[in-house]
Amino acid sequence: MRIDILSVVPELLESPLGHSIVGRAVKKGLVEIYVHNLRKYGLGPRKNVDDYSYGGDAGMVMMVEPVFRMIEELKAEREYDEVIYMSPDGETFDQPMANELSLRQNIIILCGHYKGIDHRIREHLITKEISVGDYVVSGGEIPAALVTDAIVRLIPGALTDETSALSDSFQDNLLSPPVYTRPAEFNGWKVPDILLSGNPKLIREWQDEQALERTKRFRPQLLEKGI
């Protein structure tokens, strides 16, 4: 899998994509991640990538040309399954979407910045718009890192125990059950006896019950999607 991320502030992506599970997946050769500086195609001596908005609204807007030229350069080298724009008004990112995107071969992720991007980019170049929630942040870099992390950890071999991802929250529209580790008792707080029983069937039943109970309590809307 290859992920190309387009940004005007590529430095924001260095740390989250260079460490932990994502960093190890890159080192193993399971995924290629390239962060591209859009200023490579910036205009004029100052390599401008933004300009004032038509209509006089406040805020600067990312221009068409630098984005178009960089995407065209990448597409000349390979085919892409998706060209994604991180946008607060895109489709809300969730676990099923992460599962779907993890099966793709090549993805471009465009990080917006400033007031946003020229709408013609969205009309003619973008195939999918993704939001990470109903709020606005300074740019698309942190959301892009979040989406990349969620995708990469699902690639076979990225996790030491590949079955771990199957028990994550939201995989079955349920939150995960509580988890515990040693010691079995600390400060008078005990691990549930069932988890110490050594009976896999009873443990699994308890975990299923806890997952359903926690979902009903904290995220009941998930149950509306069906289990």
Question: What descriptive keywords fit this protein?
Answer:
227 residues; alpha/beta; Alpha/beta knot; Trp Operon Repressor, Chain A; 2 domains; five-stranded parallel beta sheet; two-stranded antiparallel ribbon; 7 helices; 30% helix
Task: Give a written overview of the molecule.
The structure is a single chain. The protein is α/β, with parallel strands linked by helices. The protein has 2 domains: 2-152, SPOUT methyltransferase, trefoil knot domain (Alpha/beta knot, 3-Layer(aba) Sandwich), CATH 3.40.1280.10; 169-225, Orthogonal Bundle (Trp Operon Repressor, Chain A), CATH 1.10.1270.20. Helix content is 30%, strand content 19%. It contains 7 helices and 9 strands, in the order βααβββαβαβαβαββα. The protein has helices at residues 14-18, 20-27, 64-75, 95-101, 119-124, 141-152, 200-218; strands spanning 2-7, 32-37, 50-52, 60-62, 82-92, 106-111, 128-131, 185-186, 189-190. The strands form 3 sheets. The protein has a 5-stranded parallel beta sheet. Strands 3-4 form a two-stranded antiparallel sheet. Strand 8 (185-186) and strand 9 (189-190) form a beta hairpin. The longest helix has 19 residues, at 200-218. The two termini are 30 Å apart. The relative contact order is 0.15.
